[in-house]
Sequence to fold (133 residues):
Amino acid sequence: MSVRRSILVVDDQMHITRIIKRSLSAQGYDVELAQNGEQALGLLQSRGFDVLLTDYQMPRMNGKDLCETIRADMPDKVGFMILSTAVADESLRSWAENLGEAIYLEKPVSMRRLLVLIDEYFSRAADVGELAG
Fold:
């Protein structure tokens, strides 16, 4: 994974991704945006990201399918995945728990909660030497 503490944010509502990018960038994270799962997979072909934050409900490829594709086809490209959705769904929560290094969050997601989760991931990864440098 990258030394830059990189995050890929995927959501078809670009006003949301811009707000998230601004907040995460202000904390020193390297943030890239994608409007859908297909665009995210294209970005992942050329580089990896430490964290993926994706919306569940998107056209053509939902966030769950995106996460499953990443784990199956390019598991070394993302360290930690966060799936967010406005629809409470216990089956999604169970799915995320079983995926490993993944979490499910209900919207609206507070930036404070998001930053805590991301910071905790980077602390764990540094403790076990998963991050370069």
The chain has a mean pLDDT of 89.
